[in-house]
Amino acid sequence: MLLLALDTATPAVTVALHDGRDVIASSSQVDARRHGELLLPAIDRVLAEAGLKLDAVTGIVVGVGPGPYTGLRVGLMTADTFGLVLGVPVHGVCTLDGLAYATDLEGPFVVATDARRKEVYWARYADSRTRVTDPAVDRPADIAEQVRGLPAVGAGALLYPDTFPSAHEPEHVSAAALARLAAEKLAEGGELAAPRPLYLRRPDAQVPKNYKVVTPK
To answer: Where does the UniProt annotation place the signal sequence (predicted)?
Structure first.
């Protein structure tokens, strides 16, 4: 097994290789505006670090969000393209699940990432491997009662200390955690999600309502 894991659902552009036993190379850079520019060089970098070529990869793992439209689709399109070219399966993993898995927390807690527009993408977990609510997008004040008293991780939690007073790192997801989680589930014979995006809301850029199409005569 050689899994190539990647995620662009948060400001982190993160890539890792997992050989079936553990992560053998990884790279993470935080830049919310350069996902498309940074992802392919990061993939080249981790392959070079591991001394491997892309054709050695036997499966792709991609974070499916939730996340902003533009950043998220960079990772998903790259994963789909590599899967098609290499003829290998593409597995989707919820980005929030990757963040939760990296915590090793045993009790109930919350993962919240920055959704912009003064909102967070969030979900509740029973432990680092068990999500108990579907991913959602809300204003922090609107979910204060649901998360009261629970530890929280993620950039969204760190941004709103009034709602998440016990927030701490990790701030962004790492592909290393995604790879470990995916490898663990595959080894157990479990199924992973389809590589389909969890947008949860419409993209920021939309066609104006009164837009008129002009065609040449």
So the answer is: none
